[in-house]
């Protein structure tokens, strides 16, 4: 809270500094945001190289111990004060009005702010970047110049943040994805719609097949459902009413409206309903790698982690009430095992309980929430409660996985749903021959393949573990006369994903390329290796680790 | 041609017979169709059981040696002749008019017809079914009653046809799909949009993985592309202009129009264009199991073989002109090998040449057509030429596979495309460092997974070969005390897809169910088997083949 106030006040100080340096500037707005603040300006023509100058001016202002003075004003006064500031005038029409004066700079603002600039540590903030931003976020309006800054209470915190940022930048999956030739995003195809190239598809295939084998052995049945379906399904499910802003406009086919599917649930329910289900069949567990399409504003799209089309590792579990606790426990246990296989061992687990508006009875919520708690306790998992954070249709557990630099990423979710079984009137026949309503659990482990691969890339800085590497081994023949032997080595290693790099280029250039592409093992073969039936090995991250017989190398990996 | 005339004349005789039996009937139209004919009637309330009576009346008419008399008439005369026949009156407005008289029945018709009914073999036709059909095929019009018939020159041909029909009915993949629990089609989801259940998804997975491994070893790179993309891509490709009636209406996203993808080509081209390609990289072969959506009229939808969404085993090969012949030869050779693996050994191969309207130069067509011929000749494949049957953008080879009862099914296609490389301006750098245009080949082997699985089911009458069977083995314990042993056997056979059927039901009932589901091996285990570490085997199609040690059974299969 205190930090928010500091950040907000820094936005004003930024505006004050810009006003001193560029007096003809027009002011937009300047709020506190996560980790910092920004201010939008019109008639400001600057570049990144001007930021240090502005930062310096801000520090001067801070050191002057300038007061933040609040005053209530009338609309009429506002019109006078801001007569040369069109954006402020526009805001004067709609807001209950107060102003803050900071030195020469007056802003229309509700506050709160620090009392004096001396409360701000001049060494604990930094202007980070310039960006274009439409006035009021509407692309019909003028594009303003936005200056971003980050701010903390201490210099130490700032330095730590900047270091993590630097780390994060090295790990940016968008850049890594390009370097490793995994995917591309092409404006001609559409924003938020990645094209997966050959190596990216291999990576997807490895993950997909791993999930397929694992979940099959856990009794899941895999389904394949279409990407469109009648709108009425999502009206019945309630999604049309609750999530319409994320659903694309319907397509008319033969006078009926169809949706590009935003979620798979109705299809899985229709498969459940395709025959009569008995208590003996429960739990029924349906899984699908279902590609769904949801609208996101273009401004929030980000590489693979925020897209418009993504492949959920979706599952729906239909069980009897007395199976709920055990099902959740086994799902959670198994889910964590799978996350661990991918290299994620630290999590934040959140249990979200009944919100103010909810469906079903208090008793149902109590029982379901207890089942979730039971599962966590049984597995000795620490969790935080998110009170009233459940969705209207049931309580849930969310897992955020922590990557190698400690950033949390929302991935897994286990949601109990009291709504859909009612809405679709689904049932099973119990021991006594009576119709009963099953409990439905939605669960995703990785969340989506796209997002998860994005997280994997950032977690490993692109150096994926051997089993996930699209290309595991490069074989580089030193000269033309070693090509045949290179092919022989390839054959012997045929259990692995290999490329023989026999283009006419220098060995050192090929090694450099292999390192850029983060190939786990680069094998160089020349006269000596040919003679010894061996390979010279460069291991990723370790460099040259010497010569080794082929058999021994296979054993090693 | 002669048969068409007989069939058309039979339609008139059908109308004449119906007129005699139901004088108040109103006549629609009655053309010859594949294998037979139909006639549409209004104000005809009959059921299937009335067909023999009508058939009998038709035979009477045929035997009367009735003449088909043609006469040109004016519009005015037509109005008089058909004054009680509203549908004929409607047609009188638009057609150049002639009538045919057959006994008492007069039809507005251009002909041609037989001269006399004695030219028709009264024992070589059969009325087959009733159906509803909208007047002029438009659902806004009234639904008429359509009577279908089949007709040939000889009774022998008719009998052969009816027998194949009967065979085909047993093999109907829609019924088999339900019995084998592979898929369902649900009106609430949408016509032509199959939902693949657990076992169906296993079957898809087997086929997908087989293709994945095979094509990867052949140097294909697999891509994964979205199901929507900007409309402008298909405007550039020309699909929007040429195939619009099969493309669903665009979806608006952020003021831009997107299509549910009707074909994958533009995406593959965008991946090709994502970096500079050298002659050294060619041929570049991209494959994708891409699910596309195309509009088909609801009336023509049929199970899996005619759907609105299907997964093409699509590929695009970019090669240099001098690589074309070899590429085509290897694709064709390899394609036939894959079809053979699925059990298809007989084909009809069609080579389609330059149509009247075409793109590119005569020389290009010549060269490409010669390459296709070269490939066929090299592989000693017999093919038929379909003169001028090529698509405007290039010549092609189509393969129809023949199923076990001799029916041909269009599956594979190899199409050379001169259009897209130009439209998208794609290039590679040749030896001299100059930009060159590659040749593009579209190819699908199975056509689509949906259609191919439909054909597989009909070909094998549901009894899929072991490697394709979603469930390969059932283990049935005789009594409760054999359940543990059944589980042990399951473990020993863990390389196979197995279900242990230990529900409380009689062994004979379970065996019957297993036979309905066409399980390749049903293993029954009781006291004797438990003692001998053996299983009692029922092999599909053979019944009980005796007891066998587990090891020996594994060797056997």
Q: Hey, which two chains have the biggest interface?
A: A-B, 54 and 54 residues
The CATH superfamily of the largest domain in chain A is known as Bira Bifunctional Protein, Domain 2
Radius of gyration of chain A: 29 Å
Main β-sheet description of chain A: 8 strands, mixed
What do we call the CATH topology of the largest domain in chain A?
Answer: BirA Bifunctional Protein, domain 2
How much strand content do the residues of chain A show?
25-35%
Order of strands in the sheet with most strands of chain A: 11-15-16-23-20-19-17-18
Mean pLDDT of chain A: 93
Q: Which overall shape of chain A is indicated by the principal axes computed on the Cα atoms?
A: globular
Unreliable residue runs of chain A:
none
Quaternary class = homodimer
By CATH reckoning, the class of the largest domain in chain A would read Alpha Beta
Which class do the helix and strand fractions of chain A yield? alpha+beta
Number of domains of chain A: 3
Number of strands of chain A: 28
């Amino acid at each position: 809270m205190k930090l928010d106030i500091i950040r907000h006040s820094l936005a004003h100080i930024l505006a004050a500094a810009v006003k001193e340096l560029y007096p003809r500037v027009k002011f937009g707005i300047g709020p506190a945001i996560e980790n910092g603040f920004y201010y939008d300006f019109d008639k400001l023509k600057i570049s990144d190289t001007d930021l240090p100058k502005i930062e310096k001016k801000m520090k001067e202002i801070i050191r002057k111990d300038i007061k933040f003075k609040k005053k209530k004003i009338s609309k009429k006064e506002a019109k006078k004060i801001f007569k040369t500031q069109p954006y402020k005038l526009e805001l004067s029409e709609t807001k209950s009005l107060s102003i803050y004066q900071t030195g020469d700079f007056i802003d229309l603002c509700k506050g709160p702010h620090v009392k004096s600039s001396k409360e701000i540590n001049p060494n604990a903030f930094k202007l980070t970047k310039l960006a274009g931003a439409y006035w009021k976020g509407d692309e019909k309006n003028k594009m303003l110049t936005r200056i971003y800054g980050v701010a903390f209470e201490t210099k130490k915190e700032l330095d730590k943040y900047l270091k993590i940022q630097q780390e994060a930048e090295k790990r940016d999956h968008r850049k890594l994805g390009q370097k490793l030739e995994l995917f591309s995003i092409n404006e001609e195809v559409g924003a938020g719609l990645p094209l997966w190239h050959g190596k990216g598809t291999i990576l997807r295939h490895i993950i997909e097949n791993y999930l397929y084998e694992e979940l099959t052995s856990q009794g899941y049945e895999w389904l394949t459902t279409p990407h469109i379906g009648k709108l009425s399904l999502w009206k019945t499910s309630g999604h049309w009413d609750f999530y319409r802003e994320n659903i694309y406009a319907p397509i008319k086919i033969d006078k009926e409206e169809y949706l590009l599917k935003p979620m798979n649930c109705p299809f899985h329910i229709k498969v459940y309903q395709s025959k009569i289900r008995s208590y003996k069949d429960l739990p029924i567990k349906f899984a699908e790698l279902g590609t769904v399409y949801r609208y996101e504003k273009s401004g929030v799209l980000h590489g693979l982690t925020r897209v418009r089309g993504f492949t959920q590792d979706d599952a729906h579990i239909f069980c009897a009430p007395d199976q709920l606790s055990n099902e959740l426990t086994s799902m959670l246990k198994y889910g964590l095992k799978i996350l661990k296989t991918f290299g994620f061992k630290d999590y934040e687990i959140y249990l979200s309980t009944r919100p103010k508006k909810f469906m079903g009875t208090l008793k149902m919520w109590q029982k379901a929430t207890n089942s979730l708690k039971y599962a966590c306790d049984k597995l000795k998992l620490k969790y935080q409660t998110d009170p009233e954070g459940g969705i209207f249709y049931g309580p849930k557990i969310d897992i955020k996985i922590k990557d190698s630099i400690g950033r949390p990423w929302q991935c897994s979710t286990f949601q109990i749903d009291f709504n859909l079984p009612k809405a679709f009137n689904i049932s099973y026949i119990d021991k006594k021959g009576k119709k009963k309503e099953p409990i439905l659990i939605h669960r995703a482990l990785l969340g989506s393949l796209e997002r998860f691969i994005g997280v994997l890339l950032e977690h490993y800085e692109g150096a994926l573990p051997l089993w996930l590497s699209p290309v595991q081994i490069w074989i580089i023949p030193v000269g033309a006369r070693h090509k045949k032997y290179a092919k022989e080595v390839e054959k012997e290693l045929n259990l692995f994903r290999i490329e023989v790099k026999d283009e006419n280029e220098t060995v050192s250039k090929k090694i450099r390329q292999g390192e850029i592409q983060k190939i786990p093992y680069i094998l160089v073969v020349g006269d000596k290796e040919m003679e010894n039936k061996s390979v010279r090995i460069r291991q990723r991250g370790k460099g040259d680790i010497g010569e080794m017989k082929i058999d021994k190398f296979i054993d090693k990996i």
